[in-house]
Design brief:
mainly alpha, two-stranded antiparallel sheet, two-stranded antiparallel ribbon, 50% helix
């Protein structure tokens, strides 16, 4: 796209930037909980709400609930139905959020929810709404369209079809059998037995596999005898993986699929089902909807603290003893029952359904690292800041020691997770057959960033891991210079991928050892991808939602991410004003021509100007659905635009040569 032109002599007004950044910091700090961390707020989800309604309806229909429990569920079902009625898009379909395009998965799940809840409430869903929904599904290709969306990955296709079979919308023969008996093998062997679902979907494998076997027609002896014998042992696995909250991964859809499957196979009164129903009842929002997950508290806190630390004037006064202890308390100290992960990692929340992963672990390490210094340079070797403590000076050193040991354990945990291809997966090493279990660029770059910010803890093992990770990134760079992420997307792109997010996350603070060619191609991709309005990413849905003029399509989140990545390299390129060739920078003699430097400067200035204008129009207070949850389920997080913009403008504030 065409880029907004800027004179290379143009600079930004320091006072305006400072004022905008102070406003953002004030808003971000105001979002803290009483103990100093951030919880955030995930978008309400039509998909989650539909699955919760179906699960509750299946439990009520089973006839195995006490009268009071049944009445309570019916009340919540009706609240969910009322909320869903207001979420139908103009085209008749349903999207995952109120800012999402209609998609085949959510639309089918809403149809199933309406059908099942009609059966237990005695109500009838509006005929016009049903007709419009069915018409949209038909235009989207019906079941063939559903299978096209997910390809060979059965992780979400089979649960959707199971939900539809339970509702009576499709015959059970349309539902593929899942090998629930495979769950009884030792966890360490899961990656070798050819699971047809991703690592995090084992509870669905068990519950859905069983309802298909029990209600949808089993197989012939002797295999049917083997499978029947595996029912109780696999149920014990299901129980052992269920957290005290009752919600698998704190996720409404996954928990709902388990609950509806067990209820439909006559086990609504089972302990697992009852715990799942408790989670669903507790996690409904006041408006009658359900989010995709309870919260991303640890992830939001890591992002918020790192963003605040980018400001060169930040004094870390927000970094309290309570905050640091809360973050350390989120680190797993025991083997995790869900994935079998070793101790040392962090998950996305402090709630019991969280699981350690290769994005939240680096995020926590970097956050704690940044709180150890008042310098905004992530790669500096200054660890001189005293950690906050409520006791004596001895407790200060003990607090610091405990925190650094936690970071060391986190890095060691990451090293153990690295795949043979050199990249990092999300949860489990070696599950590489399905997309959401493969090594990914965004996670690999994040892991490398965390390892690099602990230079005093270098070792041969860590050095080898870094070199392998960098090779993975070089190998997976696209022909146009971009990198594609796993957990973020852009709904206006035909493939729903997000190269702006992926490229920005790879480039920010990446080691020059990635190579001049890879880095320059990545920077050039971001420069070339800048929209004519001065921002990045987004699409027509952004313009339509905000009522913007033609050509104004950029999103706050993607623009902030791109600006932060570009600024992180501005001061590391010899020949730029203020550029200093230091140990971690590109050495003198690298072929950075004048046109690249000029284009980089112009992109930073126009992108920063776009962000300042967006804050003035309060665009940063409206999040956009760029997040992917499991199986390409869209979500937005209220804090993302605020956090990303704070980080980007903090980086710009560091560059005196760009300010006047």
């Amino acid at each position: 796209m065409a880029v907004v032109e800027n004179s290379v002599s143009e600079v930004l007004d320091r006072r305006e930037l400072r004022g905008t950044l102070d406003r953002l910091r004030g808003e971000l700090l105001a979002q803290r909980t009483t103990d100093g961390h951030w919880t955030g707020e995930l978008s309400a989800s039509a998909l989650s709400t539909a699955t919760a309604i179906s699960a509750m309806s299946a439990a009520v229909r089973s006839g195995k609930l006490a009268g009071a429990d049944k009445a309570a569920l019916l009340e919540q079902i009706q609240s969910g139905r009322r909320w869903l009625a207001g979420q139908q898009n103009d085209d008749g379909g349903f999207g995952d959020t109120d800012r999402s395009h209609s998609n085949i998965a959510t639309s089918y799940l809403v149809l199933a929810a309406w059908t099942l809840s009609d059966q237990v409430t005695g109500e009838t869903t509006d005929a016009n709404a049903i007709s419009r929904l069915r018409n949209w599904i038909q235009l989207a290709g019906e079941l063939d369209g559903l299978r096209r969306r997910y390809g060979k990955d059965k992780t979400f296709v089979v649960p959707i079809l199971t939900n539809m079979a339970i509702a009576g919308l499709v015959p059970w023969k349309k539902v593929s059998a899942l090998p629930f008996e495979a769950a009884v093998v030792p966890q360490s062997m899961y990656r070798f037995v050819g699971m047809p679902v991703v690592s995090y979907a084992v509870p669905a494998l068990v519950a859905i596999g069983q309802v298909k076997f029990l209600e949808g027609g089993g197989c012939l002896p002797p295999w049917s005898l083997v499978r029947r014998a595996a029912i109780e042992p696999s149920m014990k696995v299901l129980r052992s993986m269920q957290p005290s909250s009752g919600g698998y991964l704190e996720a409404t859809p996954l928990t709902a699929f388990v609950v509806m499957s067990l209820s439909a196979s006559g086990r609504a009164d089972h302990e697992v089902t009852q715990n799942g129903l408790r989670f669903l009842r507790d996690s409904m929002l006041p408006d009658g909807s359900w989010p995709i997950d309870t919260n991303l508290a640890n992830w939001a806190t890591s992002l918020a603290t790192t963003a605040l630390a980018m400001d060169p004037d930040d004094d870390r006064s927000w970094s309290t003893n309570e905050l640091i202890q809360w973050q350390r308390g989120c680190q797993y100290q025991e083997r995790h029952p869900f994935t079998g992960a070793d101790p040392g990692g962090w998950g996305w929340t402090d709630l019991t359904g969280s699981v350690p992963d290769a994005d939240d672990t680096p995020g926590a390490i970097i956050s704690l690292r940044m709180q150890a210094t008042t310098r905004p340079d992530l790669l500096c070797d200054d660890y001189s800041r005293d950690w906050p403590a409520s006791g004596s000076s001895d407790s200060v050193s003990a607090n610091a020691l405990d925190t650094w040991q936690a970071c060391d354990r986190g890095v060691d945990w990451l090293l153990g997770l690295q795949n043979r291809d050199g990249g990092w997966p999300t949860f489990c090493r070696g599950w590489g057959k399905l997309p959401f279990d493969r090594s990914s660029n965004d996670l690999t770059a994040h892991a490398l960033r965390a390892i690099a910010c602990l230079p005093q803890r270098e070792s041969a093992k860590r050095s080898r891991a870094v070199q392998r990770g960098l090779r993975f990134l070089r190998k997976n760079q696209q022909a146009d210079g971009s990198w594609l992420p796993l957990w973020f997307g852009n709904q206006d792109r035909s493939e729903e991928d997000n190269p702006i997010y992926g490229t920005s996350r790879v480039l920010v603070d990446v080691s020059p050892a990635l190579g001049h060619d890879a880095i320059s191609r990545g920077l050039q991709y971001l420069i070339n991808s800048q929209n004519s309005d001065g921002g990045w990413g987004g699409g027509e849905s952004v313009r339509e939602t905000f009522g913007l003029p033609e050509g104004f399509i950029s999103s706050v989140e993607e623009t902030a991410l791109a600006v932060e990545a570009l600024v992180s390299w501005w001061g590391r390129i010899p020949g730029n004003e203020g550029g200093q060739a230091a140990e971690n920078d590109i050495p003198d003699g690298s072929p950075w021509d004048a046109s690249m430097r000029s284009a980089l400067r112009a992109a930073i200035l126009s992108g920063t100007r776009w962000l300042i204008d967006a804050v003035q129009r309060e665009r940063h207070q409206v999040a956009w659905p760029i997040g992917f949850y499991f199986a390409k389920l869209w979500y937005y997080e209220r804090l993302y635009p605020l956090v990303y913009t704070t980080a980007a403008l903090g980086r710009v504030m560091q560059r005196d040569e760009l300010l006047r």
